[in-house]
Sequence to fold (991 residues):
Amino acid sequence: MKPPIELLQGTLDLLILRALQNQPMHGWAVSERIQQISENVLQVNQGSLYPALHRLEHQGWIKADWGVSELGRRARFYHLTAAGRKQLEREAENWERMTEAIGRVMRLA
Amino acid sequence: MMSWADWKLRIRALISPRRAEEDLDEELRFHLEMQARKHRAAGMAETDAEWRAAREFGGMTQVRERCRDQRGLQLMETIAQDIRYALRGFRKTPGFTITVIATIALGLGLNTAAFTAFDAYVLRPLQVRDPHSLYEALWIQADGNDRRLTWRDLEDCRKNAGAFSESIGYEHLLTRIAGHPVIGQLVSGNYFAMLGGETILGRPLVPDDAPAPGGQPVMVLSYRCWSNKFAADPQIVGQKLFVRGYPLEVVGVAREGFAGVGDIPWDFWVPDTISPLLDTANAGPLGGDRFGDYRFRLVGRLRAGWTPGRTRAALQAWARQHSASRLPAERIVRVDLESRATTIPLVREVVLSMAPLLAAFGLVLAVACANIANLMLARAMARQREIGVRLAIGASRKRLVRQLLSESILLAVPSAIVGFAIAQLTVDGCVRVLYATLPRGIVELITIIPLHPDWRVLLFMLGAAILAALLFGLVPALQATRPNIMQAARGEFTTDYRPTRLRHALVVAQLAVSALILITGAILLRQNLRISGVQPGLDTRGVVWLDVQSALGTGVRRQLAADPLVEQVEASSKVPIAGLLRWIAVTPAGAKQRTPAGYLLASPGYLSLFRVPILRGRNFTDEEARANAPVAVISQATATALFAGRDPIGQKLHIHLDGNQIRGANSPAHSEVTVIGVARDAVNGWIGSGTDATCIYFPTTVDAAGRALLVRVRGDAGAARQRLDSALAQSAPGAINQIQPMDEVLNIQRYPFRVAYWLAGGLGVLTLALTLAGIYGVLSYLVAQRTKEIGIRVALGANYRQVVGIILRQSTRLAAIGIAIGAAGALAVSMLIGSQIPNMEPFDVRAFALGASVVFAASLFAAWTPSMRAARIEPVTTLRCD
Fold:
């Protein structure tokens, strides 16, 4: 197995928003989900995850409520707000454009 | 922008920082547990799994710190830090803290006291239904005079103008009830219904009380009048009270707080249609024999959705049409609307007339702020090394400014609290002093509306305190943290580092304000001295003035003449000293130009009663008065103005009356009169305008209607007044509307000037004291800062006198600049006041000289001690330190 890749600067927010798009989750689940979907290529640094979650909450893109986890323990569940959904759309689009542009440069330059 | 949820979080974090922290801890702990569980599930041993999870996570504290930063909780914490830091500083310098709080509190307190009165009269809505939709209509005639409406005009306006949804007519009525002077209103029958004036006893006035001329002889008392003058008598309803000699039945007492609309809280209300019964003073020029002659004011309620502009236009259209058949000069050409939401409407004239006073109070606060700004600046400079070091190790300027500002805000809060107490004491004290010093004759009459602070006062206080904190805090904070302070940290002073310039500006500003207030004060004081120095030229001692109800006049005069206390009974068309003379235009025989002149109708003994000597010619005889002969006596000043050197005796005077004046009643009866005598100058008009510039006496009899009766008594006038009043109350109840010794009338008229005198003087002294303290503080500091320089000078051989000279020269220069600016300001202010007050002399050289020299002397005095200290500097010690 190849070693996991460090996350590109600024992409963590996008990944968190995307992970929360379909259902509310607690912090640990977010990191697990990103890891799983990326097939362990993307490793979320735990030390960045929580500040990022709090930053997004502060910006009003996600909201947290205390709920009960699948194992019956109290946990903070995050979900997307309306503003968060818009932000996700914007950032996803930017991401598309950027990767496409980088891809073109890599192929043709 | 922060969302509400965010604020909630911050507030929660501030109130219970524990709770937010615990939430965060729990969240992170949960993560660790889940991670450890995952590792266990993958087959790790219990302790290994936990250890690995913790290692993956990284530094718990750092993560926590970073989470906190992200949430912006830090702002709250730094504020708390600033507060703790500032409080620690205050504890270390209690003297400084107390000085600041006391100075600002004084300024704030005085301003709040002034604002409390302003608020009560001008801003606080009256306690009537929907006061903000009430407007009074002012009807302006082509000749510029405003005109009131007759009862029929009112009815017509109500029916045909369609401007207001509802409206009332009213006029005030000054009288005495059971010996107490009272002011009430004549009102239309819908007054109480429209204003929401419920009663606590009996019933209010209703439309049936005032259906048509005649009306019902009933009255409603205000709660205040009922409780103050009738001891809250529960049996009052049904009693008959004499008003202007006529018995009226009390039908109700209004609820507490209801005082009607108008300039003052009213004592009682009677139907407007009984005006003829009461022979009220609002009769037209013909006197009150026909009901149609009585005039009223109109207050209406705006229709829903109508602007005052639209209402005004509708009233104007009605008024133009309604007055079309009148003489051209009397046609109504304009209607003005004035809000009746408050006691005094907030219009330009009112604000303008109060502006000088409010500005004076504001300037006192400004001086206090300048003082403290200087102090804070000096303190910040003393801490420059500390600030420099903090800037050097990376504190942002914003952070430091915020810290210095929070210091000033923290000082402003207790200042506001102390200031509020000072304001309450001031208001209370002023009302007490007012009652104690008011002439007895009006103390019963005036009702000061309650001056309790409301939310507007608190808001004002808050605003003023914050403004003050910014004023005295922001400038020093910005100055002290200027980036080049870095040099200060190293003890280097380059040429462009000049905090002194700002401090000089502050001192100059203070001196300017102080000079401005003192010079303006001096002008006002001298003006008042002139007025209180004006001798009425009438011997008022032993003379009592009576305003008698016309219908009962004959009986009263007979009784007075028979009373052993009474020496002489005379009459005039107006009581002297109070109120302006009426004016007419006259042309002396042989001249062409019309000259305006004041006049008085007086009985033959009027001049001798007041001991005014006839200088030339003779007085009228009783026969001339009875026959209404075409003769006149003129004052000396009038003789000079009209005949300039010629002998006035025997000259003819042509008399012109303008459209409003009708011959007879209160105007001269003839179009041409012969001058038969010249009397010494006196004050028959208002004492505030000084000795009459012109006064023509026309003969009248004691028995003519509508005259002020003047009685010379034996012995003390005050005692005689009591005796006569109670004797007349027995024989002719309600006949005497007013009875005052003339000395009392004089006191009452001089009183406002005395108040202005003390106010101007008090504010002036206070400002001077504040300025003195300010100059002293700043110069002391300047000397302290120049210690090194002075030390070098002394070391190089400068002597005592030279050193003192340096300091004094510096302060003299500042004083000169400040005084020059202040004098220019004072000139502008006094010209503004002069345009409002008659007979004011804005170019009073002595007042300017006086104010300027006091400020100059004070600044020298304040500079003296610091300069002495400078002179005693030991060069060796100063050069050695630092």
In short: Chain A has a mean pLDDT of 85.
